[in-house]
Structure formats: C-alpha cells, structure tokens
Specification:
By secondary structure, the protein is an all-alpha fold. The chain has a domain of about 90 residues. It is built from five helices and no strands. α3 crosses α4 and α4 packs antiparallel against α5.
C-alpha cells in the first residue's frame, strides 16, 4: 500500500471509532438538581412576601387614582420643576394610576430620586405619561449645565 493511502485509512478508522464514542458521551446530560425543602420553603415565603407587597402597591395606586380623579375634576394647575415634584404629582395628582408610560415614569422618577439615572430621563418619561393620560402640559426648555 502507498503511504498516503495508509494515512488516509488510519485517519478514517480513527474518525470512525471516535465519532460514536463522542456522541455517546455527550448524550447523557446531568439531570436538574432537586431543590431542598428549605429552598422550597424560602421560595414560598418570598412569593408570599412579594404578593403582599403587590397588594399594598395596588391598594396605594387605587387610593391615588381616586385622589387624582378628584384633582382632575377640580381643574387644578400644577407646576412641576423637579423630579421630586414629578414623582409627587404622579403619586398624588395624576388622573389615572395605570398605563405603561405611567408605570415607567413612576419607576424612572423614583430611580432618579434615589440617585440612579438622569433627570432628563425622568422628564421625558413624565412627558410620555402625560401624553398617555391626556394631561395637558406646557413645557419650557431647561438648560443642562
């Protein structure tokens, strides 16, 4: 036999023997570990705590919604000059307490107030919430230094 032919045969034989072994080794994944009872109990407690937090938030939003609807009926005019003002208005004087832009504005304003994010993000999200809720808004441009 020629040397080149021998090398090709040896490579083909090695490949033929290696492929089935490699396929068998990777076909047996490890099963997912079963959580302990302590982990299950902790997860259940976390769910219950989060459910209670959600219930409290929904109650606060429902009360805020009632106050906001009354404020809208009163026809009051508000000046919003800071992120804190915007957050206060969203929580206490907004005509609705729902909607994607409203919830986003609440989150962004709260983040900015806690030191995360930029006030311009809060302003833009507040404007989007106003458009979503049909709140008439008059703006002035603020210079950023």
């Amino acid at each position: 036999m020629r040397p080149a032919f021998r090398m090709a045969m040896a490579a083909a034989t090695t490949l033929a023997l290696t492929l089935p072994l490699a396929g068998v080794a990777s076909a047996d994944p490890k099963p997912d570990p079963v959580p302990t009872q302590k982990q299950v109990d902790r997860a259940r407690a976390d769910v219950a705590s989060k459910r209670q937090s959600v219930d409290q938030l929904e109650g606060a939003l429902a009360a805020a919604n009632a106050r906001l609807q009354q404020a809208a009926l009163d026809g009051k005019v508000y000046t919003v000059g800071t992120t804190k003002d915007a957050l206060d208005m969203l929580l206490n004087a907004w005509p609705v307490a729902e909607g994607k832009a409203f919830l986003m504005a609440l989150q962004i304003c709260a983040d900015v107030e806690s030191g995360h994010g930029h006030p311009l993000e809060a302003r833009n999200s507040f404007m989007a919430a106003a458009m979503e809720a049909g709140v008439p808004i008059e703006t002035t441009m603020v210079q950023q230094h």
